[in-house]
């Protein structure tokens, strides 16, 4: 699949699942302030597009639908949707690979992750979609999870502590439509030290005499 604007739909309507979400979202805002819901409604669109087409993106006609629902000028919605890179304004593959290459991830081997992604998908440049339409790869700035660097975000999930081998295994699993549980791929618990905790390992221990003084 290529990210081709010709694939853009000519109409968009919220489905029942989206309408339920929208009712919950808009109930949070006082009367007349529903425009504040523009960001969550754009996420609603993106999730609905994934359900309906397998590609999580926000076509312009859907931005118009959001504008009409919130009583906003369409240009105000376009401004928001094109400012935040979390919204895809072109079609993306089923698995949207968002590789963090900012300094902590780079120091921990993001080059290896990028190389493994390229090798497994055949994608060469940022923003490209693989020939089979399964993967789109982009470069992103710090995802706020440096403690488990390097990080690869796939759709909405973080895969952490990656290296070339783990990245290749992850992409093979995605290709089989069997994504592993998100989180650390090294097996450590959350962001505990590799090899397990080294402090506070006993419950109910006593302080030694020196520490007590
Ligand atoms: S630098 Fe990659 S998560 Fe912070």
TrEMBL record:
<feature type="binding site">
    <location>
        <position position="142"/>
    </location>
    <ligand>
        <name>[2Fe-2S] cluster</name>
    </ligand>
</feature>
<keyword id="KW-0479">Metal-binding</keyword>
<dbReference type="InterPro" id="IPR002023">
    <property type="entry name" value="NuoE-like"/>
</dbReference>
<dbReference type="GO" id="GO:1902494">
    <property type="term" value="C:catalytic complex"/>
</dbReference>
<dbReference type="GO" id="GO:0046872">
    <property type="term" value="F:metal ion binding"/>
</dbReference>
<feature type="region of interest" description="Disordered">
    <location>
        <begin position="174"/>
        <end position="213"/>
    </location>
</feature>
<keyword id="KW-0411">Iron-sulfur</keyword>
<dbReference type="GO" id="GO:0031090">
    <property type="term" value="C:organelle membrane"/>
</dbReference>
<dbReference type="GO" id="GO:0008324">
    <property type="term" value="F:monoatomic cation transmembrane transporter activity"/>
</dbReference>
<dbReference type="InterPro" id="IPR036249">
    <property type="entry name" value="Thioredoxin-like_sf"/>
</dbReference>
<feature type="binding site">
    <location>
        <position position="105"/>
    </location>
    <ligand>
        <name>[2Fe-2S] cluster</name>
    </ligand>
</feature>
<dbReference type="GO" id="GO:0098662">
    <property type="term" value="P:inorganic cation transmembrane transport"/>
</dbReference>
<keyword id="KW-0001">2Fe-2S</keyword>
<dbReference type="GO" id="GO:0051537">
    <property type="term" value="F:2 iron, 2 sulfur cluster binding"/>
</dbReference>
<dbReference type="Pfam" id="PF01257">
    <property type="entry name" value="2Fe-2S_thioredx"/>
</dbReference>
<dbReference type="GO" id="GO:0031967">
    <property type="term" value="C:organelle envelope"/>
</dbReference>
<keyword id="KW-1278">Translocase</keyword>
<dbReference type="GO" id="GO:0022890">
    <property type="term" value="F:inorganic cation transmembrane transporter activity"/>
</dbReference>
<dbReference type="GO" id="GO:0022804">
    <property type="term" value="F:active transmembrane transporter activity"/>
</dbReference>
<comment type="similarity">
    <text>Belongs to the complex I 24 kDa subunit family.</text>
</comment>
<dbReference type="GO" id="GO:0098796">
    <property type="term" value="C:membrane protein complex"/>
</dbReference>
<keyword id="KW-0520">NAD</keyword>
<feature type="binding site">
    <location>
        <position position="146"/>
    </location>
    <ligand>
        <name>[2Fe-2S] cluster</name>
    </ligand>
</feature>
<protein>
    <submittedName>
        <fullName>NADH-quinone oxidoreductase subunit E</fullName>
    </submittedName>
</protein>
<keyword id="KW-0408">Iron</keyword>
<dbReference type="InterPro" id="IPR042128">
    <property type="entry name" value="NuoE_dom"/>
</dbReference>
<feature type="binding site">
    <location>
        <position position="100"/>
    </location>
    <ligand>
        <name>[2Fe-2S] cluster</name>
    </ligand>
</feature>
<dbReference type="GO" id="GO:0003954">
    <property type="term" value="F:NADH dehydrogenase activity"/>
</dbReference>
<dbReference type="InterPro" id="IPR041921">
    <property type="entry name" value="NuoE_N"/>
</dbReference>
């Amino acid at each position: 699949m290529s990210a081709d604007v010709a694939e853009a739909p000519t109409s968009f309507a919220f489905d029942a699942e989206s309408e339920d979400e929208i009712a919950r979202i808009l109930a949070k805002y006082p009367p007349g302030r529903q425009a504040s819901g523009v960001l969550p409604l754009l996420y609603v669109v993106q999730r609905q597009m994934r359900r309906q087409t397998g590609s999580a993106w926000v076509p312009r006609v859907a931005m118009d639908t959001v504008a009409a629902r919130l009583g906003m000028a369409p240009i105000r919605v376009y401004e928001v949707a094109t400012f935040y890179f979390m919204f895809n304004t072109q079609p993306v593959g089923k698995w949207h690979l968002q590789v963090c290459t900012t300094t902590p991830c780079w120091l921990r081997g993001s080059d290896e992750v990028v190389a493994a992604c390229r090798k497994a998908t055949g994608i060469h440049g940022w923003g490209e979609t693989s020939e089979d339409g399964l993967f789109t790869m982009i470069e992103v700035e710090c995802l706020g999870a440096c403690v488990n660097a390097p990080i690869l975000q796939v759709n909405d999930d973080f895969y952490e502590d990656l290296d070339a081998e783990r990245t290749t295994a992850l992409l093979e699993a995605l290709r089989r439509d069997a994504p592993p549980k998100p989180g650390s791929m090294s097996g450590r618990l959350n962001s505990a030290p590799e090899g397990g905790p080294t402090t506070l390992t006993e419950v109910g221990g006593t302080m030694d005499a020196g520490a007590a003084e």
